[in-house]
Amino acid sequence: MTKYIIIGPASYLLEKENNEFIDSFDVVVRIKSGYPVPKKLEKHLGSRTDILYTNLVEKRNNLTKENLNLIEENNIKLKYPFPILDDYTNLDLNDNIRIIYKNFIKNNKDIKVDTINLKTYKKVHSYLNKRPSILPLIITDILNENPKEIHLLGFTFRLNWLNKFDLFDGTYANYYRYNKDIISSYSGIKFNQVHDIQKEYDYINYLKMNNNIIKIDFDLYYKNIL
Hints:
single chain; alpha/beta; sialyltransferase cstii, chain A
């Protein structure tokens, strides 16, 4: 059975040398612009990447030609966190999901991209009754593999955004996302209700309570949340 670690974007990871701990797992999972890891930050973030979950949008995923070559050379598995369907009715998705995926495949024929299946997406969506963000989909997807452990490191779950207006609270480290993109993310959640942060956290906690293989590490500042 396999031990997975999912590395998040929170800045508290940069306060400690986590490289040996992270790289000790069987599978190291990173998200969007979490790859490639800057060389100077490997002592904090680890050096390995085995799976990269990405929405295939270059702007927020570092999917430059150079980085795509690195992904191919290092046999990193790419996974798209949505099912590819002809009809997305009642799923809070639209045809752009399919178009982005097909365009990427067309332009990068040598790179294989796996997708999350419909059953997995529906499981998360039915709990949230809203389009999920990437983390609950990743956890649910990995649970399908019958893992020995799923360890979450570097997540604040954005819960601080529910009650405060400090967007730059460490939810996203500077290497991961620029301030203008943090503002865009916050606006999409706070004003457009793209995602439901509280219900997503409730869902993750539900999974944790019902699967003792899920472990969560996070900064002391957030320990009152659990």
